[in-house]
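Now for our specimen.

. . .
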Amino acid sequence: MAHESISILQTILSASLVVKLVLIILLGFSATSWTIIIIKYRVISRSQKETLLFIDTFWKSKNLSDAYSKARQLHESYVARVFRHVYLELKRLTGSGGSADTLASQNGGASLDNRSGVEHMRRTLRKATSEEVSRMAQLIPFLATAGSTAPFIGLFGTVWGIMTSFQGIANKGSANLAVVAPGIAEALIATAIGLGVAIPAVIAYNYFSQKIRVIDSDLQNFSSDILNIVERDIFRPRGGI
């Protein structure tokens, strides 16, 4: 095993300049991909845990003010961030700083009528949700880029290694193993590393894409819930039941 490792290392060190550049590029792709995978896994995992905690707290809260106090403590929750944004916008619109009951009682002093107020909050929710999805999806597209390009970069190294083998045959006038082996070895190593970069990148991209879809679904569901609360308890039609 040690002999094989030394042989691979020696093959890389003795490879042509072009193949070495290809391997350096692939290693850079690999290091960046794994850094993104680790960072995004930690961020998304923490965000989802805090989101579950916030949603549970939100439905147990007596009013929006209590929910806001909890949301301020959960900095990683994407739903809590959307709620903080919406709550502050709601305070600005109504000129109140309290609970849903307080806001409802002061509806007559709101700067917008009921229909405009609901529509404004709908736009606010849509914007905040879109920003959160974009924020959570940051860096993930690089994994798709690495997964789609790394095999071709490795293939370029493969082609170059085979060309080196043919040049060796032409220069030596012989096609024995000693002549073609170095170029073939370079080609196989470039191919292997290219696949080694692409496979985990594609797997991670699919995994995180599914997580982003879940996050988007959570945000859409929460947006619908908070909008219903706002429409029912705060911007309800005057004179309604």
Observations:
- Residues 177-233 form the longest helix (57 residues).
- Residues 2-233 form one domain.
